[in-house]
Amino acid sequence: MANKDTSSTDDFLKSLGFPSIEIHSAFTHFDFSKPGRRVLLIGPMGSGKTEFAARIWRDAAIAMKKSDAVKEFTATGVVDRRNVFFVRSDLDNSRFEDYPSDALPYRGGYIRCGENIARIKDSFGLEQVLNDNPTVGTFIIDEASFFDERIAYVVRKHSLSRGVMFIFPTLILNFRKAIFNSTARLMLDMATDVIPLTAYCDHPDCLANAFYTYRYYSVDGRECPALFFDPLIVVGGDKTKSGSWSPNYCSRCDMHHFLPGKEYTFFTLKPLAEEATRGNAKLLRTELERLHGDKENSQLYRSILERYGDSEDREVYLNSILPDFIAEKALSYLMCEQNLLSEDMVVKLASDLKLNTEYLSKILSDNGRLVNFEQRLLF
After folding, report:
1. CATH 3.40.50.300, the chain: domain bounds
2. Could you tell me the pTM of the whole model?
3. How many beta carbons lie within 10 A of that of residue 289, not counting itself?
């Protein structure tokens, strides 16, 4: 029996003489008549969030060709929601670098936005774009979770006071299957509509729906799952990468989303850092030294072996220690996300253990901490 979302489609198909079959909702054009909507397009990497946003852009272009009578339904004051603007993050410069600078790009294609496109770095940049474009009624803000949490309040203000509509193709869950950050949480709180999208699980033996974004490294052709304490944000392009410097992403179902090191993070790594803040950094230093150059004698390796040693996916879990920079990632996690280690302590440990400060500087910068190791080590 059809639910209320599909009843009109069901009635229409029955009038054409279709037999009793499973009825799905009609794939309708986008509705620009409702003012102030805040629409989240959520799903894993590769689920078609930006492509869906491009479809909204195309629908708007068709609606703009309608007579002035239509404007009565799509406008609030000088704002017309058929007038669409695309906003991207400055962090996103390395993605889709082969596309035109005015492109709304997605995997497999793009739409040219002309002058209706801007790059911003924070919510203040969005405010400027909104003020500079007072007649634009719909803003597509790509990967809004990368912006500061103030953006949720900027969006709410303009949607309520001027009837502006906002579309957010964005990741809500990070590679850990947790709410991405406080910005993502606030966006969920202020959303009026949520459109969830899925993808096929990328695992070669699976056709299940994927709801999660999976992060992994490719080392010597082997799939190496990112550890739980891998940096939350790693800025990089969309191209497939080999080696330890940059991860790859794909969509995975729950069964094939491998995330080793969670127990270790909270049972071992974080307590060692807490002990270090109390003046005893010896145990943390020892573990970091092993993570850097003697991984199979680390507590991390023992934890993974104990947790997944009998699993049929044992090999892929153990591959997680193959990438380089595990000690650097642990330091970044403890400093940026747990706020347990001071900059001075991170610089000293990195120097004493001869860690890769170029990699560590990049990761800290990606996650909002600027540390000039070269300058600091001169003093």
Report:
1. 30-197
2. 0.84
3. 18
pLDDT at 1: 39
pLDDT tops 80 at residue 6: no
Question: What is the tens place of the pLDDT at every residue in 102-113?
Answer: 888 877 788 888
Max intra-chain CA distance, the chain: 83
Angle 279-281-284 (CA atoms, 0-180°, nearest 5)? 145
Distance in angstroms (rounded) separating the CA atoms of residues 122 and 150 = 9
The Cα–Cα gap between 42 and 48 comes to: 9
- pLDDT of 2 over the 50 cut: no
User: What does CATH list as the number for 30-197?
Assistant: 3.40.50.300
At 157-202, the pLDDT tens digits run 999 999 999 999 999 999 999 998 899 999 999 999 999 999 999 9
Nearest in space to 74 (alpha carbons), one of 106, 32, 104, 112: 32
Query: Token digits for 194?
Result: 């949520």
What span, in angstroms and rounded, lies between the C-alpha atoms of 253 and 55? Answer: 26
Rounded distance, CA 171 to CA 23, Å? 29
210, β-bridge pairs: 199
Residue corresponding to tokens 């003012």: 35
Two structure tokens written together for 3: 């639910």
The pairing of beta strand 209-210 with beta strand 109-112: unpaired
- Determine which helix (DSSP H) or strand (DSSP E) holds 366, and give its type and residue range: helix 357-366
Contacts of 91 (CB under 8 A, 6+ apart): 121, 146, 235, 366
CB-CB contact of 355 with 327 (8 Å): yes
Q: Which residues contact 132 (CB under 8 A, 6 or more apart)?
A: none
Tokens matching residue 147: 């912006």
Backbone angles phi and psi of 241, in degrees to 5: -125, 150
Query: Which ranges of 146-250 would DSSP assign to H, the alpha helix?
Result: 151-162, 182-190
* DSSP character at residue 90: G
End-to-end CA distance of the chain: 74
Burial class (CB in 10 A: 0-12, 13-18, 19+), 306: exposed
Summarize the chain as % helix, strand, coil (round to 5): 40, 20, 40
Q: Give the pLDDT band (50/70/90) at residue 373.
A: confident
